[in-house]
DNA sequence: CGAAACTCCTGAGCGC
DNA sequence: TGCGCTCAGGAGTTTC
């Protein structure tokens, strides 16, 4: 479900409710997520204050004086702020109880993760992550240099979190359309000039999507229960067979790196 | 080493 | 109404 804009929307949604708040209780209803949740989590976290709510790639980081709770939403995870007494829904796996509200993690497919780390950025899963796409450190120059000699297609290259974090299937598809680059183009064959356009496209699309509260395809809701509106700005994703908004040509659908891909054969070379 | 395939899991939508 | 099939927004692990 979530790509970077949805994770950032989630972060912004929960921050005002939990930053500075003390955790009163922790309930774990299902430990079997991507990795088994540490059974000692309630003991570790109860009584701790959340001092910061940040994000690294698609990982959410809830900082306390003792260490950091790392939450990944996987494909189908979501966080909601609810009243303590609100009935638990199917697939609500973890709950952090604060003074009056609770933060609940719901994740039907259980591809998400809840991890505990003293130094989260040293966790092997986070240590090798590439730059944040919205940071100055994400530049055409580094992409260009890192891509020399790389034969794999540009779509899988920009979706690789070691290259740049947070670009998932929807936004990779959209950014390549905006940049006029064919998704199967070899990363190593793309000029510096075209990487400049691509980096600009990625930044712009992600910024706009965050502003719109993310993309709701069927079920993404922010922690207050509101959907994201970027869906209405999607130019190619989910529009295979329809007319290109730019040239009118029929958009083509294909499966690339086992992921649905849509592109305009005339606009993207 | 890089690149591609495979894997985890549930639910929605479709054709019959 | 039900069955079986396909597909889904991620990414770590395995295989070639």
Description:
The mean pLDDT is 95. The chain is 25% helix and 19% strand. It is of the alpha+beta class and 269 residues long. It is built from seven helices and ten strands. The strands form three sheets. A four-stranded antiparallel β-sheet has the order 1-6-7-5. It has a four-stranded antiparallel β-sheet with strand order 2-3-4-8, covered by helices on one side. The protein has a two-stranded antiparallel ribbon with strand order 9-10. Helix 1 packs across helix 7 (192-211), helix 4 crosses helix 7 and helix 6 (169-179) packs across helix 7 (192-211). The protein binds a DNA duplex (16 and 16 nucleotides) through residues 1-3, 6, 34, 58, 72-76, 91, 107-112, 125, 150-152, 156, 159, 161, 168-171, 215, 217-220, 237, 257-260.
Question: What's this entry about, in short?
Answer:
It contains 7 helices and 10 strands.
Provide the fold topology.
Layout: H1 4-18, E1 25-28, H2 41-45, E2 52-56, E3 59-63, E4 68-72, E5 78-83, E6 92-97, E7 101-106, E8 113-117, H3 124-127, H4 140-147, H5 154-158, H6 169-179, H7 192-211, E9 252-256, E10 259-263
Antiparallel strand pairs: 1-6, 2-3, 3-4, 4-8, 5-7, 6-7, 9-10
Helix pairs in contact: 1-7, 4-7, 6-7
The structure holds a DNA duplex (16 and 16 nucleotides).
Number of helices: 7
Subunit arrangement of the protein:
single chain
Order of helices and strands: HEHEEEEEEEHHHHHEE
From the alpha-carbon coordinates, what is the Rg to the nearest angstrom?
Answer: 20 Å
Strand content: 15-25%
Structural class: alpha+beta
């Amino acid at each position: 479900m979530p790509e970077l804009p949805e994770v950032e929307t989630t972060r912004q949604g929960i921050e005002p409710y939990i930053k500075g708040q003390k955790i009163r209780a922790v309930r774990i209803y299902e430990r079997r997520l991507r990795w088994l949740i540490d059974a000692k989590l309630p003991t570790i976290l109860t009584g701790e204050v959340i001092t910061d709510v940040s994000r690294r790639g698609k990982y959410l980081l809830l900082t306390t004086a003792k260490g950091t709770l790392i939450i990944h939403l996987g494909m189908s995870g979501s966080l909601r702020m609810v009243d303590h007494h609100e009935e638990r829904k199917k697939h609500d796996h973890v709950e952090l109880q604060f003074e009056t509200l609770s933060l609940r993690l719901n994740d039907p497919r259980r591809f998400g993760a809840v991890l505990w780390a003293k130094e989260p950025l040293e966790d092997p899963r986070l240590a090798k992550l590439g730059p944040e796409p919205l940071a100055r450190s994400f530049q055409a120059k580094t992409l260009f240099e890192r891509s020399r000699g790389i034969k794999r297609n540009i779509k899988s290259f920009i979706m690789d979190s070691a290259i740049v974090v947070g670009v998932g299937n929807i936004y990779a598809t959209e950014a390549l359309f905006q940049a006029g680059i064919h998704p199967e183009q070899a990363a190593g064959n793309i000029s510096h000039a075209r990487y400049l356009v691509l980096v600009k496209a990625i930044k712009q699309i992600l910024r706009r999507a965050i502003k719109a509260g993310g993309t709701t395809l069927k079920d993404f809701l922010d922690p207050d229960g509101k959907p994201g509106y970027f869906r209405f700005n999607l130019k190619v994703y989910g529009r295979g067979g329809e007319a290109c908004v730019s040239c009118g040509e029929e958009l083509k659908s294909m499966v690339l790196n086992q992921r649905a891909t849509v592109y305009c054969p005339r606009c993207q070379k």
